[in-house]
Amino acid sequence: MILYYAPGGCSLADHIALIETALPYRLIRVDRGKRTEDGRDFLTINPKGLLPALELDDGTVLTENLAILVYIAHRAGALLPENGLDRWRALEATSPQRPPSTEAGRPGLSRGGSRKRPRAHAAVPSATRDRVPCG
Question: Nearest 10 degrees: CA dihedral of 76, 79, 85, 90?
């Protein structure tokens, strides 16, 4: 498996799950310009252009954190209870916790965010604004 990631991005949870389960994988970094560290256009791998993306051994690409996390847990037989309420609570806990509106990957800012909420815009570190958007 290959996990396409950006440091400090949404792919961190998937990376942790792969480490915890000891499944074999490789990491390939994707930069803000949508290029992989080996020079490929990331949009040919994931047309959504969002991270994380997990390429399976057969070339299939999974996207979206929850789908990737459940896949890793299922394949490893670990991290996710098989049945019962505990399973659903675990999925509930890993579901995206997104604000109602985002602008260019800036959490909590609505359209025109920097004009409408300059203090909120200033509070978002520039390093966060420069990350590859998450899916």
Answer: -120
